[in-house]
Amino acid sequence: MKIVIINYGAGNIKSIQFAFKRLGFEALLTNNPEEIKAADKVIFPGVGEASSAMQKLKESGLNRLIPQLKQPVLGICLGMQLMCKSTEEGNTKGLGIFDVDVKRFSNTVKVPQMGWNTINNLQSDLFKGVKDDEFMYLVHSYYAEQCKDAIATTTYDVAYASALQKDNFYGVQFHPEKSSLAGEQILRNFINL
Amino acid sequence: MLTKRIIPCLDIKNGRTVKGVNFVNLRDAGDPVELAKQYAVKGADELVFLDISATLEGRKTMIEMVLKVAEQVNIPFTVGGGISSVEDVDLLLKSGADKISVNSSAVKRPELVNELSSKFGSQCVVVAIDAKQVNGQWKVHLAGGSIPTELDLFDWAKEVETRGAGEILFTSMNNDGTKNGFANQALAKLSETVNIPIIASGGAGTIQHFTDTFKEGKADAALAASVFHFGEIEIKNLKEELKQKGVSVRL
User: Fold this and answer.
1) Any idea where the Glutamine amidotransferase domain is (chain A) (predicted)?
2) Band of pLDDT at residue B23, cut at 50, 70 and 90
3) Which of A25, A184, B115, B126 would staple B101 via disulfide (CB 3.0–4.6 Å)?
4) Domains of chain A, with CATH numbers?
């Protein structure tokens, strides 16, 4: 099993690598297109600001590579958001893998949403063994709207898509690597896809 | 529904926990990694590590500790204490910290908050504020509360929000160490002043104090040290009681 974590200079990716290590898997940090193409599983992380993250993807040509990947790809947090059509953050055009736009929470709630919230309407093998209303750790100011690609829903300000899937592409808004045992189960499920 | 967070805080000096810890089943009560793992199992929602080392050597040990915690603990954690530059933060985040907190360094040079939030994102920038109520005015204090400033707590909170802070950790010097409850009036006013999450700190003594700070103080999270370390309050019991009182928690 060859797992790679795309390293394009966005945020804390050590935690994801450590989470796989706890599950008994070595994950390689890389931005090398050949390594990424040859992997069995690809993690597309992201913490930080959308437009500068997108800029970094363009500089390395990863914006063209990622949508062409054939193996299971898991976008986490900003990674998931960048796989959508567009995001209001920095008015950024995304990779367009998921047919949905990313919007900012309204100021009727505290922004960012920070902490543990539930996921429900779970509809994917990614959530095998994970019960409805399980808690996940989230930190974000922008969210993907409800859409046909949604495979999990979370409610904060509005009910939104907290996980997405299209073909071999998966995205989660929450941080499975920081979400205790249930989060580890989701990572294990991803490895087993 | 987003739940209220319970956050144990560990003081670290030269890589070891400082305040005594009274846990059964703990092989080494001075080992922050052991302790962090225990807290994760007991249901803590996050952890805060506060580095109180004064030496360069102590700082290096802190980085090693952060790496070990990130490797072994599956809940988020914040690292604070002595952070004053983009480089400091870069190293901590690369070592696996989820968030960092700045305090005195932000007061001395407020642009630091802008620099950190634009480089690393607001989500990982916690601004810790120590304040004391003097003649009815909440004034920001530095260096662990020992040096008063002219800064008003609420003005400063608003300013750091504008500069890109993702969260505020407010410690009331009037309440800290008293075990008489959190500074709920000031906390509630903070929540009305800014639109970012607030962590309440200082004064936890009983389970009721936590209920009060979530309900009256409108806090998004509550931080405490000794009541958890000495087993005076068990996190699981605390959360069960909070739930009974209608406070939403992760159980």
Assistant:
1) 4-191
2) low
3) B126
4) 3-192 (3.40.50.880)
